[in-house]
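Model it.
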Amino acid sequence: MSEQPTYQPSGDGPSGPRAGFWRRFAALIVDGIALGIVTGILVAIMSRNAANGISTLIGLLYFSYFEGTSGQTLGKKALGIRVIDFNTGGAIGFGRALIRYIGRIVSTIPLLLGYLWMLWDKEKQTWHDKFASSVVVPESAYPVEKWP
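Modeled.
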């Protein structure tokens, strides 16, 4: 049997394998398509304003639940990546996943600078990763024990 890698955070440099920009971007596209389908269905059966409000709430719950438990949304699962706690390597929990979701909004405001930040950050963290003290890693290096 092969031994699973252990999580060893380090303040001096990269502390383990990280998911790259394009895998993270593709996962976000997959999640956007899934949530877009839900929004389209809601728009077809109710007013646009109500549908947008409900779909925003669904997105908040979707990302908070999946990233808070297994660290994998449908997109992250499809691309083989996951969100973990930077300090322990475990799940970030619902509360910190909610902070991470809100951090996405902040990351978007200055021309997506918060998303692009990972391109030069030594731990490949976006601003929303920093807000939640999380990192995105390959599932092959940090396997998911149980996906919801």
